[in-house]
Amino acid sequence: MPKLLVVDDEAIICHSFRKVFASADVEVITAGTVAEGRHRVAADRPDVVVLDLQLPDGAGTELFSYIRETDPKRPVIFITAHGTTDTAIEAMKRGAFDYLNKPLDLEGMSQLLGRAFEAARVMRDPAALPDDPTTDRILGRTPAIQDMCKQIGRVAGQDVNVLILGESGTGKELVARAIYTHSRRADRPFLAINCAAIPEGLVESELFGHEPGAFTGADRQRVGKFEQCGDGTLLLDEIGDMPTAAQAKMLRLLQEQRFERVGGSQPIATRVRVLASTNQDLDRLIAAGKFRNDLYYRLKVVTIRVPPLRERKDDIPELAHHFLFRYAREAGKDVRGFAPEVLDLFQNYSWPGNVRQLENCVQAAVYQISGRTIHPTDVLSLIDPDTPQAQPPAADGPPAFDLVRTIERMLRDGERDVHARVVALVERELIARTLGQTNGHQAQASDILGINRTTLRRKLRELNITLDKVVTDRAETDDVVS
Ligand SMILES: Nc1ncnc2c1ncn2[C@@H]1O[C@H](COP(=O)(O)OP(=O)(O)OP(=O)(O)O)[C@@H](O)[C@H]1O
């Protein structure tokens, strides 16, 4: 369970944090003085620290210095009272994660803490290359993924900026973390910013900070991610969505290793290593005038392409088992494996959402089943039925499953809900094959099956049956699906 240490002498503040995180599976530890805070940091090793600037036996910045010395990566958030913001900004320049103003806004506070826990997780759980037995490994043995890992190994130790390209869910963030983990900056911070998730007008300020009065609402100075990151690594996720003004500033930063805060005129030097990633086609964005060509050329000196899952299907069984064991452990369930038909189904599917979709599919199946084995009926509704590869086998193809073997296995594995699941398997097979015989003609299939068309359509939807050739006459198109 993640641990949060709150160092504040006001009981009401400590109480607010306990209340906000009561239901969030976060252990909240509190301390009222610098000395006690120091003890708690050493004894409890919290993931995130929230620190009041003014404590009875000294300044919060004293404790902050101690934390920076012992673990420079641990996110620290300051609580500032009126008039202490400048000190908080100074702390940000020395690498604090952020600061909260009193009185505390509970919603803003829980969002900020969520980001801090995520940053702590990313830095704590290093992403590793396949031959490294630790933590979040990049799994896969296909040549495509092995080549990618070799490339990561080659560039990680060099201090160059890297552009990571790949479809959504292919593992770009994992690649960025692996580069960081294997770099000389692994003991420095790793921060990520998603350019698509920040309102356009705020991206510049988020990255470079701003001076008071830089724009309406900028009443105080703000330190941006580049200053905050020090000599760490910054991932600019979804860089294709970076607004044009921020792109111009980024270009200058990459050329000169300097930037100015928004509304400021004093150049600030930076040593941050920049990793950028996108799932967009940057060439197309350049052609459309949405992305700067010169910035692209600066970024793409070292480019890593993360292959889509459909181009490395041989990795699917390993990934699927990895997610199965991970989520079975998380759910506290004794799920042991996949029926062979499931792996066939996975191999024949195109996975438009890539590894993330496979992960979500396995996770959902693990959570919803009651037995020890995942069967086709447990995953079919989780795979996009419109993708041709997800279709049931043709009527004249090999049998999709052996009914007797399947029933025997379910009983042997001590599975539950056996009746509903076997009936669904049989129904699916029967309907798919009947429609195969009628060449997709639903009216004829209803006649053969002896069920009305509305029921047939409902079953098609419930059982996720899609058809190669559905003969849809006008009357059928007008039917209402119940
Ligand atoms: N090769 C891999 N081995 C193990 N896990 C992987 C692999 N590739 C991706 N994953 C897992 O798949 C999920 C999605 O990966 P990630 O978030 O890195 O994708 P992404 O390309 O950054 O996605 P997006 O473009 O949507 O942000 C994560 O949980 C990640 O750990």
UniProtKB/TrEMBL annotation:
Pfam families: AAA_lid_14, HTH_8, Response_reg, Sigma54_activat. It comes from Fimbriiglobus ruber. GO terms for cellular component: cytoplasm. Residues 138-367 form the Sigma-54 factor interaction domain. Its main location: cytoplasm. InterPro entries: AAA+_ATPase, AAA_lid_NorR, CheY-like_superfamily, Homeodomain-like_sf, HTH_Fis, P-loop_NTPase, Sig_transdc_resp-reg_receiver, Sigma_54_int. One of its GO terms (molecular function) is ATP binding. One of its GO terms (biological process) is regulation of DNA-templated transcription. It is found in: Cytoplasm. The keyword Lyase does not apply. The modification 4-aspartylphosphate is found at D52. Residues 3-117 form the Response regulatory domain. Signal peptide: none annotated. This is DNA-binding transcriptional regulator NtrC. The keyword Metal-binding does not apply. Coiled coil: none annotated. Keywords: Activator, ATP-binding, Cytoplasm, DNA-binding, Nitrogen fixation, Nucleotide-binding, Phosphoprotein, Repressor, Transcription, Transcription regulation, Two-component regulatory system.
